[in-house]
């Protein structure tokens, strides 16, 4: 597997400019002649599709939702980072770069991260020009706040709905192009197969989720911006429809999968309340700016929080990480919550929860101020739990929230399959082993607005311009594979619903490949998952017919892919015998802190599919740190 | 199934079942015993569907995705009210504690000419996207743009813009309106973009084009019932409709004048 990162040479601050100059261009008059497919319409997908169409490419954009505006980027609450240094508090492109490399526990590429930090500045300009209603100060200028893991205020936000507003900005730009006829939009379409001809990505096969029709769409290049795969845990903060199918199909067609075990477990979600639970809801990390996290000092303390006196509470983050306190990065805060609960000091009916307490902040700032800052989040919490967080502390617990792993891409966002580009959370991305708060929106938009429009041109200008038509054997084979799979799923007529299998898989993943992992547990998971998968293909019950809206069929297809991906995640977690960022191996720690092994694991693990039933190959791309020196990540 | 920490309810559901857009639908009654008050409304439907599946019956099709009140995908008319009884709450955020043991609930899709039924409780809201595509944007192609702080915006304006931009495009306003009008949806976008200096150049054409598209999609007109505002899960205010009407009137007058002038000059 060719894993050339294609990072340009030269000093870090000049790499991207140099690369932009060196890339080949497609003549403006010729752009119309190129067809580009974009799968996904979230921040990366919508911004990429719109920007490429503005340049003149013929774009077809696909999403499984009924409208591109619904992609799950919409649910991001907290904000978006940018190195604007509007606060004059010492921020800079270099500092954002540094923080992101360190935050990712030295498992991201320096070149990519620096580019991300550079571009961050332009993203805010672009969004403001589109009318994104960022929060402003009385003087009319943009407001900022500090956000998980940063000591400067570089986060721009739109109340608690930043993702929504950024997505609507990108969606509106996309709709404008749809109106102009430069983008053809295919809502309620799910990608089922990637078409590779002569080693290049040339199209996709989709299923129309209303009519059931299997359709082929051909193009000169294919972009996947289909988001993360954290729903493998079943309970997650993802939308219910988020899935791994697009990237999994690409993996099985030869795209390398980078660091599948890197998942982010977000520390502040509303705890599980029962076994019917279908999803978990995030409470924005911004709450940690004013809320204090604690558990009782005593094990099994069942008193209500108000009855536990101050000196019998353990504000464990403040105690363990005095300089970051409640703002410690996500992986660290999540792990600390797990440790408190493992220790028998968890709160709430299940014992799987910790308090996030606003009493001090309300005392200091007044209820009005807290309401102004977090009113909508408090309301959301109350709606779900029927408890009033102004009076009793919130209960929170970590949940699957983001995946840093994804399809491997080079500096141009190109996967190991030429012509297949991967954007946003779907790629193995710039976050290393842990993503900092407010950086996902930044990366999605950077990839879509400012990277892919350049790098796609560089590819198209050099790729041979050959025609593929729908009668090509590869096309026929891809279509046949989709049909066969649908028939197979509908033909099993077993006893268990796809959701039941998904729940079971989620339990295995959470237990053995969640916040803490170990050799033995992962080995167990590697036995349990194939067994569950086997049972699935014998006993799943998929009702209805293929030629209609069929939510049971949709779900079954996604779960089938998760059942394969879950195994790869465990395999990757097992082989990475170190702890880094969100990947915590119990055997490798310093008193609860992640212990990296830079000698052996300072690399990206890239998995290569070898065929069903065969063990995939683990390739590596070594990581080099020339600017930020490898050091133990400390937030103490 | 069930479990959890709440009480259990026994419910009866009368659900609209319709195979596809061009076939007739009907209400079908289902018993839903042992529903925990801690469940969300959609989790209750999951449970009903899982039980149906175990009997080999096809589940009730309904749209949903984020299940946290922000994507705007879900939407069921519950006992005649879009998104059900709780104000400012989407169907996915509604919890079963809003109901009592023994309740009988009627579940229907959004009903409007502009929203053809896809299946059971799912409708096609593509019309709302098409309204946006005609003018619900500020033309700002990706590229060289001024620094974000180059144009200050008074906080009051930014706040109003944000209030309007909070719309999730679920279509409850249309479902609630006796005329199936999409005025609140359209007005929210027009208001959002009109609050910014960047939104001014296209302000008139935006209003004209979006309103024209709204009519073309078969949405009714507004006769001030105000049902839309009470159904809106995001608290979008009817006053935005007044703002939109003002923009629309100004735009029509200036358009008329421009056309008259164009006519004059071509005549001369
Ligand atoms: S499912 Fe997203 S708003 Fe209800």
Major sheet description of chain A: 5 strands, parallel
Q: Please count the beta strands of chain B (DSSP E, at least 2 residues each).
A: 7
Uncertain runs of chain A: none
Please compute the radius of gyration of chain A using only Cα atoms: 24 Å
Query: How many domains, in number, for the residues of chain A?
Result: 3
Please sum up the structure shown.
The complex is a heterodimer of chains A (636) and B (268). By secondary structure, chain A is an alpha+beta fold. Helices cover 37% and strands 15% of the residues of chain A.
Key phrases:
heterodimer; A: 636 residues; alpha+beta; FAD/NAD(P)-binding domain; Methane Monooxygenase Hydroxylase, Chain G, domain 1; 3 domains; five-stranded parallel sheet; 15% strand; B: 268 residues; Ubiquitin-like (UB roll); Fumarate Reductase Iron-sulfur Protein, Chain B, domain 2; five-stranded mixed sheet; 8 helices; 13% strand; binds FE2/S2 (inorganic) cluster
Structure description:
The complex is a heterodimer of chains A (636) and B (268). Chain A has 636 residues and is an alpha+beta fold. Chain A is built from 17 helices and 21 strands. Chain A has helices at residues 15-22, 28-31, 43-55, 93-103, 110-130, 162-180, 245-252, 316-320, 330-342, 359-365, 367-385, 440-462, 473-492, 498-513, 519-539, 551-575, 598-601; strands spanning 35-39, 58-62, 80-81, 155-156, 183-186, 189-197, 200-208, 214-218, 221-224, 257-258, 263-269, 292-296, 313-314, 354-357, 394-403, 406-407, 420-422, 589-590, 593-594, 603-608, 617-622. In chain A, the strands form six sheets. Chain A has a five-stranded parallel beta sheet with strand order 5-2-1-9-17. In chain A, strands 11-15-14-12-13 form a five-stranded antiparallel beta sheet. Chain A has a four-stranded antiparallel beta sheet with strand order 16-10-20-21. In chain A, α14 (498-513) packs parallel to α16 (551-575). Chain A is globular, with a radius of gyration of 24 Å. Chain B has 268 residues and is α+β, with helices and mostly antiparallel strands. Chain B has helices spanning 41-54, 126-135, 155-165, 172-176, 183-194, 203-216, 227-231, 239-267; strands at residues 8-17, 26-36, 77-78, 81-82, 104-108, 117-119, 122-123. Chain B folds into two domains: 8-118, Roll (Ubiquitin-like (UB roll)); 125-267, Fumarate Reductase Iron-sulfur Protein, Chain B, domain 2 (Orthogonal Bundle), CATH 1.10.1060. In chain B, the strands form two sheets. Chain B has a five-stranded mixed beta sheet. A two-stranded antiparallel sheet of chain B has the order 6-7. Chains A and B meet through α3, α5, α6, α11 and α12 of A and α1, α2 and α3 of B. Bound molecules: FE2/S2 (inorganic) cluster. Residues 64-67, 69-74, 90-92 of chain B line the site of FE2/S2 (inorganic) cluster.
């Amino acid at each position: 597997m060719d894993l050339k990162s294609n990072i340009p040479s030269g000093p870090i601050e000049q790499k991207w400019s140099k690369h932009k100059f060196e890339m080949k261009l497609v003549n403006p008059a010729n752009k119309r002649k190129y067809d580009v497919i974009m799968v996904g319409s979230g921040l990366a997908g919508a911004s990429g599709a719109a920007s490429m169409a503005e340049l003149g490419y013929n774009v077809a954009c696909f999403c499984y939702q009924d409208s591109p505006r619904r992609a799950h980027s919409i649910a991001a609450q907290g904000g978006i980072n940018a190195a604007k240094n509007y606060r004059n508090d010492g921020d800079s492109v270099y500092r954002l770069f540094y923080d992101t490399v360190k935050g990712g526990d030295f498992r991201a590429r320096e070149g990519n991260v620096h580019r991300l930090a550079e571009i961050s500045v332009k993203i805010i300009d672009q969004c403001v020009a589109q009318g994104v209603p960022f929060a402003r100060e009385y003087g009319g200028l943009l407001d900022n706040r500090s956000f998980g893991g940063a000591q400067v205020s570089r986060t721009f936000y739109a109340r608690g709905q930043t993702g929504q507003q950024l997505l609507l900005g990108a969606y509106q730009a996309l709709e404008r192009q749809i109106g102009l006829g430069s983008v053809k939009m295919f809502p309620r379409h799910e990608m089922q197969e990637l078409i590779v001809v002569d080693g290049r990505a040339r199209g996709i096969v989709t299923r129309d989720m209303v009519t059931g029709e299997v359709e082929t769409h051909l193009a000169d290049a294919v972009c996947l911006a289909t988001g993360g795969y954290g729903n493998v845990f079943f309970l997650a903060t993802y939308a219910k429809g988020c899935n791994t199918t697009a990237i999994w199909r690409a993996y099985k067609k030869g795209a390398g999968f980078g660091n599948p075990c890197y998942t982010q477990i977000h520390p502040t979600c509303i705890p599980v309340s029962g076994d019917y639970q279908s999803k978990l809801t995030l409470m924005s990390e911004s709450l940690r700016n004013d809320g204090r996290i604690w558990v009782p000092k005593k094990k099994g303390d069942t008193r209500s929080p108000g009855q536990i006196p101050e000196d019998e509470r353990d504000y464990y983050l403040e105690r363990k990480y005095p300089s970051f306190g409640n703002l410690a990065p996500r992986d660290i805060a999540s792990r600390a919550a797990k440790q408190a609960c493992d220790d028998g000091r968890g709160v709430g009916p299940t014992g799987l929860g910790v308090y996030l307490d606003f009493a001090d902040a309300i005392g200091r700032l007044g209820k009005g101020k807290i309401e102004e800052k977090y009113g909508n989040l408090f309301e959301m919490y109350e709606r779900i739990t029927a408890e009033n967080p102004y009076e009793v502390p919130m209960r929170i617990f970590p949940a699957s929230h983001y995946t840093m792993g994804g399809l491997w891409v080079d500096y141009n966002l190109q996967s190991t399959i030429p012509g297949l580009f991967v954007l946003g959370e779907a790629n193995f991305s710039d976050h290393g082993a842990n993503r900092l708060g407010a950086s996902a929106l930044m990366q999605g938009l950077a990839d879509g607005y400012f990277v892919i429009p350049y790098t796609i041109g560089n590819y198209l200008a050099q790729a041979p311009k050959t025609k593929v038509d729908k009668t090509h054997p590869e096309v026929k084979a891809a279509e046949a594979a989709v049909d066969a799979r649908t028939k197979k799923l509908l033909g099993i007529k077993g006893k268990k619903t796809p959701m039941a299998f998904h729940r079971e898989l989620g339990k295995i993943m959470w237990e053995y490949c969640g916040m803490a992992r170990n050799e033995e547990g992962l080995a167990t998971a590697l036995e349990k998952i194939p067994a569950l998968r086997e049972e699935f293909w014998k006993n799943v019950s998929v009702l209805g017919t293929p030629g209609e809206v069929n939510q049971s069929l949709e779900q079954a297809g996604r779960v089938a892919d998760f059942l394969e991906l879950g195994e790869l995640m465990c395999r990757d977690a097992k082989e990475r015998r170190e702890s880094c960022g969100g990947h915590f191996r119990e055997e490798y720690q310093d008193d609860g802190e992640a212990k990296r092994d830079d000698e052996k694991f300072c690399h990206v693990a890239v998995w290569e599919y070898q065929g069903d039933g065969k063990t995939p190959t683990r390739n590596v791309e070594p990581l080099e740190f020339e600017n930020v020196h490898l050091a133990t990540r400390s937030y103490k | 199934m069930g479990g959890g920490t709440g009480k259990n309810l026994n419910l009866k559901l009368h659900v609209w079942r319709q195979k596809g857009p061009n076939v007739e639908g009907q209400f079908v009654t289902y018993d839903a015993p042992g529903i925990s008050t801690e469940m969300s409304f959609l989790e209750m439907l999951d449970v009903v569907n899982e039980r149906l599946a175990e009997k080999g019956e096809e589940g009730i099709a309904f749209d949903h995705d984020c299940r946290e009140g922000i994507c705007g995908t879900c939407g069921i008319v519950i006992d005649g009210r879009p998104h059900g009884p709780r104000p400012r709450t989407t169907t996915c955020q509604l919890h079963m504690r809003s109901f009592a043991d023994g309740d009988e609930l009627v579940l229907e899709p959004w009903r409007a000419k502009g929203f053809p039924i896809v299946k059971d409780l799912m409708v096609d809201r593509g019309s709302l996207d098409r309204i946006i595509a005609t003018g619900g944007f500020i033309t700002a192609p990706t590229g060289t743009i001024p620094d974000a702080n180059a144009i200050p915006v008074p906080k009051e304006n930014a706040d109003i813009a944000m209030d309007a931009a909070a719309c999730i495009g679920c279509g409850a306003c249309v479902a609630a309106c006796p005329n199936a009008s999409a005025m609140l949806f359209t007005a929210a976008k027009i208001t959002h973009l009109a609050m910014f200096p960047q939104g001014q150049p296209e302000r008139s054409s935006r209003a004209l084009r979006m309103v024209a598209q709204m009519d073309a999609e078969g949405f009714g007109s507004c006769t001030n019932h105000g049902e839309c505002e009470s159904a809106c899960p995001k608290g979008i205010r009817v006053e935005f409709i007044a703002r939109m009407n003002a923009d629309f009137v100004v735009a029509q007058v200036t358009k008329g004048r421009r056309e008259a002038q164009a006519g004059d000059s071509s005549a001369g």
